[in-house]
Amino acid sequence: MTVAEGSRRSARHVLGMDLGTSSLKCVVLDESGAVLASASRSYPTQSPHPGWAEQDPADWLIALKAAIADLRAQSDDLIDRVAAVGVCSAAHIPVLLDAEDRVLRPAILWSDQRSSAEVAALRAEHGALLETTALNEAGCTWTLPQLLWVWNHEPDVLPRVSGFLSSKDYLVSRLTGERIMDHGSAAATLMLDAQHRQWSADILKLSRLPDSAVPPLASPTDIVGHITSEAAVAFGLPAGIPVVAGTLDSAAEMLGCGVLASGEAGMVRVGSAGGVMAVTDRAAFHHGVITYPHVIGDRFYKQAGTNACATSLKWIRDLGQALPGADATAFTYETMDRLAADVAPGAEGLMFHPYLQGERAPHWNADVRGSFTGLDLRHGWPHMVRAVMEGVAFSLRDGLAMFERDELGMTSAVMSGGVVRSPVWTQIITDVLGMETRTIRHGDSALGAAMLAAIGAGLFQDVAHAVSVCVVPEATQRPVTENTERYAALFGRYRRVGSFLVELAESR
Asked: What percent of the chain has pLDDT over 90?
């Protein structure tokens, strides 16, 4: 045994990677549940046409190399003694490879809206198959219609496809040389037989993918390969470290927040996108609600997703920074918190619908667009900022209403995502939902990915053990009764305006 191998065998910490919609985050976690270090790097999204959203996978690799270098700058020993690597990523982002492992085209993001015609055809011709087998229905966010769009509009691509991976699994392949996909990422393609955790032969036929391109499946904690010598040089990681399969960012975040069982608190996730999520033991289709496999193999979780959460707040921030003569360094998220706090609940009649990228639950309409309504001479930037925060909260309440419709159960929630840095926004969401919310220290997707790596490496016995060690409650917020009553009255207006916006989109 070499000195390096002995050092790795004595290692008691792991590396978690979250390949998110706008940035890659890495964390180093030790066996006591402490996060020893973290680093993140962003990458651009291209929108060559309205409604399109794509990324170059080469930018993910640049971000990974830079993030590892940042961790090494904090301490070489942290990286050299890592026992395992875990990876998660945003859902529904396919990477197409040729026989030489070259990327054939930019990766289409989950927020891309170009495949509405393919969605309509799938719903009309194969809706029952998708609902009973994949436990989901077609929408522009899913990989299957994205692939069909590529075949229909870029016919030269399909004959060259030798590999098909999700964004996370592309990263794993570059680290290990192995092409695999976990059950959660496979579910996000809309081609998984969800109840049996295997590819659906009938749906794969619809995709027109060659059989050789479809990867084998693995569970999230399975070790699927080891860092190759080439990857070690490329990214600054020691060769030979085991890599676990990992999973979707939302599933990893549920793990990082300790949301494991049905009947317990659900989760409210407010990142670039967001949604309301809860665990269920039932393998059942629910109209308008996404079904994904949980990291615990016999369970699922439901998500009523909304497209533009932190994206909406970033949009209003960027507008403020771009005003002629504006001090870009002054219009920050902290500034917006102060502006919003100075306005009473309801923003003096101003209301915002965050349909900047179409909308998922409850409308599932790629063409609907957002709006401010109720605008008058009283209103300024503080009202607009608060209205954006409230509009996102109402979109989450729309999702919660779908859970109530389907009796999925949720009376309290763990809140996660970038929103937890804003005490004003978290209180608004708590008041709009009318339920107790709490936050978890370091409770994010990168932590969940690291926990999966630690389970795979044997640092923790199982998921429950990992949660007992790593998940630390941080703060609890309770709804203010007066505010909740005010928002309940406004929610009806929010839904009526939302329905009108959908009608307007359909009449174009």
From this structure: 87
Q: Can you give the pLDDT at residue 272?
A: 87
> Any idea what the Cα angle at residue 381 is, between residues 377 and 382, rounded to 5°?
100
Q: Which of 83, 43, 34 is nearest to 64 (CA)?
A: 43
If asked whether residues 198 and 318 sit together in one domain, one would say no
Confirm whether 249 is a catalytic residue.
yes
Predicted confidence at residue 136, as pLDDT, reads: 97
Per-residue b or e along 208-231, where b marks 16 or more CB atoms closer than 10 Å to that residue's CB: ebeeebbbebbbbbebbbbbbeeb
What pLDDT does residue 265 have?
Answer: 75
Question: Parallel, antiparallel, or unpaired for β 163-166 and 94-97?
Answer: antiparallel
Of the candidates 18, 249, 367, 444, the residue annotated as catalytic is 249
Token duo for residue 137: 């229905």
The rounded distance, in Å, linking the Cα atoms of 493 and 318 is 28
Residues 246 and 266 in one domain: no
Query: Residue 8: is its pLDDT beyond 70?
Result: no
> Is the predicted pLDDT of residue 3 greater than 50, yes or no?
no
Confidence of residue 210 (pLDDT cuts 50, 70, 90): very high
Q: Does 82 lie in the same domain as 200? A: yes
State both tokens at 170: 């592309």
With H, G, I as helix, E, B as strand and everything else as coil, classify residue 300.
strand
491 and 373 in a single domain? The answer is yes
The answer to whether position 487 is within a domain reads yes
Among 206, 223, 250, residue at a domain's last position: 250
CATH of the domain at 219: 3.30.420.40
Single pTM value for the model: 0.91
Pairwise CA distance, residues 364 & 301, whole Å: 19
| Domain identity same for 8 and 104 | yes
Residue 396 amino acid letter: L
| Domain of 419, in residue numbers | 259-442+478-508
CB 449 within 8 A of CB 18: yes
Note the pLDDT tens digit of each residue in 246-261.
Answer: 999 999 999 999 999 8
| Same domain for 265 and 246 | no
